[in-house]
Predict the structure.
Amino acid sequence: MKWTSLTLFSKSLIVLALAGGVGGAVYYLSPGLRVDESKTVEKLDVSDKDVNNVTTSAELPLPGAEASGDVASKPLVRVAGYAWNAQSGLIVANGGPKTTKGSLMEKNGVNLEIIRQDWLTELRNLQMKFVEEFDKGNAAPKEGTAGIIIMGDGVPFYLSSAQQALDDKYGAGKYQLQVVGAVGLSYGEDKLIGPPSWKMNPQSMKGALVSAVIGDGDWVTAVNYASANGLKINPDPATYDAEAVNFLASANDDYIESAKELIKSQTQGWTVPLKEVKAGKLTGKSINKKVDGCATWTPGDKMVFDALTGFTDVVSTKEFNNQMATTIIFLRQWADRNKEAVSNILKSAYAASNQMKQYDTWRKRASETTQKSFNMETPEYWYAMFKGQQGEKNGISYNMGGSRVFNLADANQYYGITDGTNRYKAVYDQVSRYLKTLNPAGFNQNVKRIVPYEEAVNLSFLKDVKDIDAGATYATDYSKKATSVMASGEWRINFDPGRATIRPEGKDVLEQIYNLLVQAEDSKLELVGHTDNTGTQEGNYALSTARAESVKNYLIQKGIPATRFQKIDGKGQDEPTADNNTAAGKAQNRRVVISLLK
């Protein structure tokens, strides 16, 4: 059957099913059909102590192991998600995969089943099956799942693709999938793994091949890092560009395969046949390329570090700490009929998470219920990986794991309900830009539109959560001096000639900078302005500093704390990156360099 003969619904499902988060399988079905030029996308997004514990409430009784009889007569709500430690607050609130006696979920009258499913394609299938049964008039379908839990930065693709499929099958607007909240986030466990040189000199990534589930959160982490450091990204996984960072679409849209592909390439010499491309055009040559790194998450990171030497975590969600929230998506029409149940699921998770942030007994029970729900590893493993672990091999240090759970105060802060800084909107909008700019897996050809944040997220269920201790929020301490550079990128922001006034078209770039800085909220900042050689040397020192100050002031007005800015400087015309004898060169030299410090 030809692609052109398929319905729009079928195309959407194929792209989602074969491509995973955004996926790359379309390229293997028709390699070379669409070759894009590599692009520099708008850059930089970007122990008990780890859970920021502050005692604010009395310790609650732990959930039991026996199945709850009190909620057995209530409609069963089924939610599916990855084997992901950041879900442990929700899991321990339930007492395990099914609601147990004495659990917070039982206390709040919810009969919940949590299902492990590591493949995004199967999560989608479960949700689509639920919609199909709901459409038949079944108010409480027993097939499929009402909700799924995925990485928040993967939501723009998932919702946009799935929404188009629903519109095509049932009619535009009849059904909508919506985010109802988040219950935690990755805090280091999702990462880019590569040689230490990538961390010491990010430009050495040029020409690398990285295995990843393209479009998934781990891919976003790698794209963030490459973008923050001014590296081009090759959007076509069937081709190889020596001047860009290249991605291999991992088998079965599985992050474990990402780790296995790196291991196989490094230990067995396995290579990937790719068509060479220069400046967006095929050269007619093919190369066999080894995999140089991978984007994965726990336990994929442990697999790599156990099997290989000479590799480390280059960057992770500990640096881009707001990037990857543990995000719950429900069918809106079902959720609206079951508002109390949805809000009580969140309420139970936030109450349990608040206990985890305060009491080790709750963290240990969470590791026990997590192991039981995932049927994987041991409780001790999940307990250790929640905090995050460090290791060293042949003198190279590395980090594994790292998760956070949300109490109610954390959730309200994350969505900007309490402080006005909507961290998730910044993530959602930036990933949407990546999809539009990079067009992975022919996204723009196969999906009519990216669902905007305002349609994608419904915070009414979160706002209905009441009558629990909200707890203390996670807070970043900017009082300490940062000592190392995480990433440094150059931005060309339009100012009025010879002045530090930002032109209207420059504000779009600043909005992108803001979105990315919010994602990397734990980092401190250094801004350095540069000019071309027009004017006097002394005058250009003052002008470049004033322009860096203008950028700082704009970001402060948007909500970036003034205490985040560690250094503001101007280098004038002293450090050109291009020839000042040409107009193009002068334009290249007029820039502001923003560095993320840690």
Q: What stands out?
A: Residues 1-35, 41-51 have pLDDT under 50 and may be disordered. The first helix runs from residue 8 to 19. Residues 149 and 238 are 30 Å apart (CA to CA).
